[in-house]
Amino acid sequence: SGAAGPAMLPALRRCRPGPVPLPALAAALGPGPFPGLCPGWSPRAVPARGRKTRHDPPAKSKAGRVKLPPPVDPEELLVVLERYRQHRLVLSALRAEFRAEVLQKKREERLAAEDSVEELEEHRRLMAWNDEENARQRARREERLRKEEEEQKRRKLEIADKQARKMEAFLEEKEKEVLQLQEEAKNFITPENLEARIEECLDNPRNYNFAIDKDGRIVKRTVLS
């Protein structure tokens, strides 16, 4: 501003570059915390260019200025107002849509929680029924296996009994054959009874020269000479 300009000229002249004697520079700098900068500079004494408080009077060049708002075209104003109205409508519709989605999600979560409790209860009931059904099926399976095992044992016993009876019949038949052979062995020709059997055959001759019919009857016999 115009009031602050003349007051800042000495400070600006002191900050002007150029050859400055060291004693004069040291005396001008003083006890500042940052030597080498403008003379007498410190963070507590920073010059404010054109900055005024709200209590300062206006500049002389702007004392009689009257601020007027910029001119507004009525048609453009109507267009802008209409666009703002549409913008507000779109925003309100989007907010309503988002609010409805949030409420729907909350409702679905609540229903899902209720359904999850019902589904959990239904799952527990079905699992209990499943356990009971498994126990019943296991009992039926064990009973069926027990009956099959008893049936297999009975069949094995029947087969063993049948084989035992068959072996007994076989042994009886062989025993009869042995007895029959022993009985027939009494008429066998042995070296001991050979002479006696020869004499018996000579004393009792037999004629095997004969003819028989279809029924096995002797129909013709020749006479021994």
TrEMBL record:
The cellular location(s) given in this protein's UniProt record come to: Mitochondrion
Alphabetized, the UniProt keywords read:
Mitochondrion, Ribonucleoprotein, Ribosomal protein, Transit peptide
Source superkingdom: Eukaryota
Which Pfam families does the protein's record reference?
A: MRP-S26
InterPro entries xrefs:
Ribosomal_mS26 (IPR026140)
- The annotated region (Disordered) lies at 44-69, 134-154
State the signal peptide span: none
Q: GO CC annotation: what is one?
A: mitochondrial small ribosomal subunit
Family recorded in the similarity comment: Belongs to the mitochondrion-specific ribosomal protein mS26 family.
Q: What is this protein called?
A: Small ribosomal subunit protein mS26
Q: What organism does this protein naturally occur in?
A: Platysteira castanea
Lineage start:
Eukaryota, Metazoa, Chordata, Craniata, Vertebrata
